[in-house]
From TrEMBL:
KW Phosphoprotein (keyword) present: no
Main subcellular location of this protein, as a coarse class: cytoplasm
Lineage per the UniProt record: Bacteria, Pseudomonadati, Pseudomonadota, Betaproteobacteria, Burkholderiales
Pfam families: ACPS (PF01648)
Keywords of the record: Cytoplasm, Fatty acid biosynthesis, Fatty acid metabolism, Lipid biosynthesis, Lipid metabolism, Magnesium, Metal-binding, Transferase
Species name: Neopusillimonas maritima
Gene: acpS
Enzyme class, first EC level, given as a word: transferase
Cofactor: Mg(2+)
Role according to the record: Transfers the 4'-phosphopantetheine moiety from coenzyme A to a Ser of acyl-carrier-protein.
UniProt keyword DNA damage, yes or no: no
Protein name: Holo-[acyl-carrier-protein] synthase
């Protein structure tokens, strides 16, 4: 059975990032760098992945950064308030599907203007990509 059709598209965004830039920044600034980008749920996942495999942790950080950039483009704000890196999280559902979770004033601002948000992230060696589609608010 196919899922129901989404509402009209209100915005799309995409972003590509180079993993080595995140490796360099993390080496320079340490955990503070990750804390500036990741929301609370993402930070927990990052720390677990990094503990098992530092390269996997860095790719996670890069994909989440790309998702935040793509989301900010899809909603038309860039990184202007109420959008901030830590207020938008990309967390995986139990089956692994990435999902958008919004925090704080961004969640309220978004709910007044838009419907569902869909996110996809992918990584390959030194490159990551994220794509976000934001639906119009239902009538």
């Amino acid at each position: 059975m196919l899922p129901s059709m989404p509402g009209a598209v209100a915005g799309i965004g995409t972003d590509i990032a180079v993993v080595s830039r995140f490796e360099a920044a993390f080496k320079r600034f340490g955990l503070r760098f990750a804390q500036r980008i990741l929301g609370p749920g993402e930070l927990q996942v990052f720390e677990r992945r990094r503990a098992r495999d530092p390269a996997r942790g860095t790719r996670y950080l890069a994909t989440r950064f790309a998702a935040k950039e793509a989301f900010s483009k899809a909603i038309g704000l860039g990184l202007h308030s109420p959008m901030s890196w830590t207020r938008m999280e990309t967390l995986n559902a139990p089956g692994g599907k990435p999902q958008v979770k919004l925090n704080g004033i961004l969640a309220d601002w978004y709910a007044e203007r838009f419907g569902a948000a869909h996110v996809s992230v992918s990584d390959e060696k030194d490159m990551v990509i994220a794509f976000v589609l934001v639906e119009s608010k239902s009538a």
